[in-house]
User: Fold these one by one.
Assistant:
Number 1:
Amino acid sequence: MQLTQSHLDLLVCPVCRGALVLRAGAVDCLVCDRSYPVEDGLPILLAARALQPDSSKSVSGTS
Ligand SMILES: [Zn+2]
């Protein structure tokens, strides 16, 4: 099953309950900027798995 934005409209960020947006291979929270991985088509909405852009500089490049 393909994950689509319509699925994310039913879900919220587990940390701040903000809206989620689908990106390539990840799900981003629009409120707190955390990024959640997508594995096997399922978003892993766990705070422990979230990537925080402010604390991780491992992802570089412009979008
Ligand atoms: Zn959030």
Number 2:
Amino acid sequence: MDQHVVTWPDQGNARIPYRMFSDADVYRAELDRLFLGPTWQYLCLADELPEPGDYKTSFLGETPVIITRGEDGEIHAMLNRCAHRGNLVCLKQRGHTTDGLTCVYHAWRYDLTGKLTSVAFRRGVAGKGGMPESFKLEENGLRPLGVDQFAGLVFGTLSPDAPPLSDYIGNLIGARIGRVMRGKPKVLGTTSQILHNNWKLYIENVKDTYHASLLHSFFTTFQITRLTTGGGVAIAETGAHHASYTIGGQAADKSSSDKAYSNIHSLHEDYRLQDPRFLDTVDEIGDGITLQILSVFPNFVLQQIHNAIALRLVLPKGPDKTELQWTYIGFEDDDAAMTERRLQQANLVGPAGYVSMEDGAVGGFIQRAIKGGEGECSVIEMGGHEHASQETRATEASVRGFWNAYRQTMGF
Ligand code: FES
Ligand SMILES: [Fe+2]
């Protein structure tokens, strides 16, 4: 796709042409320039692969990858595409192998770093056939990814042009990852859901913190969050990554003269939860931040909602289809009560979450509504036109930040 096919509106990141969410050429260009380009994408937790021989599969965009713990104790990642004729080498989501990785089609065999170690019938049968002398094992491995870790999170890239991971993430967002990922993580469960919308509509939803008290009637009904609670958004300089946060503001705090909030009436003023256990929050980090939603460009989300901590990976599956994967975690030193609390609070999120259910639906509504309006634009002006950090959540600065980084990477 030619870069002058896209003429961006004069208002810059405050206007997004709807075709960005539906155009097949834009989507194809994203797979190449962004997902196979100089970005770092979340692959797994290092602790998910504790032993040499453990492996997991994932994707860079739509491109399948394998992540392994090698005999050297290090984490490796490589394309999940056989160097022979392109078959998937690993068919399972996760597993353990004691004899490397073998392609089912013609039994080419690779070690845990992706090096080709043997080819069946390489010398032919009874002196006939086989590979020519010029064929070299070392020239036919699985294509390796660059791999690095940040706070126990493993990221990969296919591009040699990606900056070092710690520079890519930066100190502002790095510190906010660190405050959540401060122990040895333990996976409590996973879910996956298909969203009937473009992947960027979900990313916009994650970055847009001001919809929370408007779209999510669970919050207003049970008075769990409001925009006037302290908080703000921290945004990386390029706009690429963000963390929105809420300070304090525990449930059922009805004390303030909260004008903005009082305009948003709950349908059911007198509703109370029969089982309020999941509102029992412990300030485990000790900084009073009850809620932090963080994104690393392009498609990783780290969530702390009270004590519910989850990793979300947003995988594109076509211009109007997305897979959203959730990994719910606790930490090795959690006691049983904390694990129970995290699982209770996890009811807020996921495919059928009391809150997240709407986020899964609203992107599909937009995808339906923009048909025929591909030349028109959305309006992103809440909080101004810039994408700098702000001490308010009544802003779309982090959404504009995403588009700033997106346009830079895509050349739009
Ligand atoms: S495609 Fe993998 S061995 Fe032939
Ligand atoms: Fe939401």
